[in-house]
Design brief:
Radius of gyration: 20 Å
Oligomer: single chain
CATH class of the largest domain: Alpha Beta
Shape: globular
Structural class: alpha/beta
């Protein structure tokens, strides 16, 4: 089985209901799955950023893409969307959804708060928040979410995480059998299809990848770790272009490792919602988490650079994302002390990318190595 066949196998299961959409990796999909919904991550451009003429232009392109897509009917097959309050831009997205409810589809939108710290108190608070979320979903859709159904959904999603972690292990090889762009396509499929079906079709494809001894590229490639929040997928494609000479071996980003890095630990004496809360607050953090602008985030990036043998880090800062712009200098100072080269690229989640900056950075790596 190749990637094209894998994608064809899952095509009938894309964008089918009953469905709930989500936008942030701090949204626990297991709760919605336990209620009988397919969960769909809206994680890339809808192509309708310019159709949003209602929200402030000071918001990021990801939010404009979501709202423009909703206005243009891109998510009509969904029964609702869940907006985690992960940043102020997403909070304004919820405000706009409520204000323009008469013309936006799906009409049902729900927002809940996510703590910005990971402590025992915040885990307890988030667990209570998620229990309220569960009750509200049950009431809204006349569903019942039992502990048994939650545990069953947790096991399915944990299986997905196991498979994706195995995929990323392949990227640690000297000659990875998959490219960064191929991995991005796999993750897109994972976020837009029911997990039962994804697991069923992806595992045999993954087993074939694990048996491959040759790399996806035959020539020498500089290994790049991509860091950011929501990034433009075109940047991976360009890095791996024959004329650029790179390969993306890991993404510490909202479309990458942060989605699946940690599993939910179910123990006999732990309630499912507490276990869910602990996993989501303890997973690989993004720039919105307070305290991660110190050692924690940077230590994770340094560890990933070592594990994936990356030659450099490209830091993609989505325009108008204050968290990423504020975090960059902290990241730059620490990585440079570790002799890890880093380059900041600014852009939107679609459209043109600064090709000259990327190419010159890769060429600089070639000059330094020489």
């Amino acid at each position: 089985m190749n990637l094209i066949q894998f994608k064809q196998n899952l095509e009938p299961y894309k964008n089918i209901g009953p469905a709930i959409g989500w936008f942030c990796t701090y949204m626990p999909e297991e709760i919605l799955h336990a209620a009988g919904f397919n969960t769909y991550g809206i994680r890339k451009s809808s192509g309708c950023e310019d159709e949003d003429v209602y929200l402030s232009r000071s918001l990021c392109s990801f939010v404009h893409s979501i709202f423009g897509g909703a206005l243009e009917g891109k998510y009509d097959y969904m029964d609702g969307v869940i907006i985690a309050h992960c940043c102020e831009c997403m909070r304004r997205l919820y405000d706009g959804w409520v204000e323009m409810n008469a013309i936006v589809k799906p009409q049902f939108a729900y927002q809940f708060s996510v703590p910005t710290v990971n402590t025992e108190l915040s885990v307890e608070y988030f667990s209570k928040t998620l229990n309220q979320f569960k009750e509200d979903i049950e009431k809204q859709f006349n569903k019942h979410i039992s502990d048994e159904s939650l545990i069953r959904s947790i096991k399915i999603y944990n299986k997905t995480r196991q498979l994706l972690n195995r995929l990323y292990e392949l990227r640690k090889r000297v000659k990875p059998p998959v490219s960064g762009f191929q991995v991005q396509e796999i993750l897109d499929i994972c976020m837009s299809t029911p997990k039962e079906k994804f697991n069923e079709y992806f595992e045999p494809y993954l087993q074939e990848l694990e048996m491959r001894e040759s790399g996806v590229f035959n020539d020498f490639r500089y290994r790049v770790l991509l860091y950011g929040g929501m990034y433009n997928p075109s940047i991976i494609k360009y890095i791996e272009d024959e004329g650029t000479g790179g390969i993306v071996v890991c993404e510490d980003a909202c479309q990458g490792y942060r989605y699946f890095d940690a599993q939910i630990a179910i123990e006999a004496d732990t309630e499912p919602m507490t276990a869910i809360s602990r996993r989501y607050l303890g997973k690989m953090p993004c720039a919105r988490m307070a305290g991660t602008h110190g050692e924690r985030t940077q230590d994770i990036v340094i560890r990933l650079v070592r594990e994936f043998s990356a030659d450099a880090v490209i830091y993609f800062a989505t325009k108008r994302c204050d968290n990423l712009f504020w975090e960059y200098q902290f990241m730059k100072d620490v990585l440079e002390k570790e002799n890890i080269r880093i380059k900041k690229i600014e852009g939107d989640i679609s459209g043109d990318i600064p090709q000259r900056e990327i190419r010159s950075f890769i060429e600089l790596l070639d000059f330094i190595e020489a």
